[in-house]
């Protein structure tokens, strides 16, 4: 078995794919009306986006009777503040809840949480 990617549902697959294409610098390798797949330049598993008409934005941190987060992406960066500013410029929102000093939780345009983080110095 080979994991070829992860798929995020969204109200508009193309819109969310544009956000992640710009954020990550990945290439669109497959595009259909309700499906877009991005692939990293050095190979490996990709990230795909699927339009879902009944999409409900996840809530993080989770609470009773709310759509809970099912997956989140971890994105390693060299400089935290610069990377977060860039993500916000592209359409992300910095979440009010920040659990760690070396991690920033952001929400993509469809509301999926993702973490921008820097490695702890050894």
From TrEMBL:
Q: Which residues, by range, are in coiled-coil regions?
A: none
User: Which InterPro entries does this one have?
Assistant: Glyas_Bleomycin-R_OHBP_Dase (IPR029068), Glyoxalase_6 (IPR041581), VOC_core (IPR037523)
All residue ranges annotated as the VOC domain in the record: 2-119
Pfam families, sorted: Glyoxalase_6 (PF18029)
Q: Extract the PROSITE patterns matched here.
A: VOC (PS51819)
The family database entries (PANTHER family) matched by this protein are listed as: CONSERVED PROTEIN (PTHR35908:SF1), HYPOTHETICAL FUSION PROTEIN (PTHR35908)
Identify this protein by name: VOC family protein
Q: What is the lineage of its organism?
A: Bacteria, Bacillati, Actinomycetota, Actinomycetes, Kitasatosporales
């Amino acid at each position: 078995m080979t994991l070829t990617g992860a798929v995020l549902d969204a109200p508009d697959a193309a819109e969310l794919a544009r956000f992640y294409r710009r954020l990550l610098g990945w290439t669109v390798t497959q595009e259909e009306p309700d499906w877009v797949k991005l692939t990293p330049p050095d190979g490996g598993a990709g990230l795909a986006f699927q339009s879902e008409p009944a999409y409900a934005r996840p809530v993080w941190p989770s609470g009773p009777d709310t759509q809970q987060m099912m997956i989140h992406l971890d994105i390693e960066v060299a400089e935290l503040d610069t990377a977060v500013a860039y993500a916000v410029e592209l359409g992300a929102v910095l979440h009010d809840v920040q659990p760690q000093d070396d991690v920033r939780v952001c929400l993509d345009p469809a509301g999926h949480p993702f973490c921008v983080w820097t490695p702890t110095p050894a």
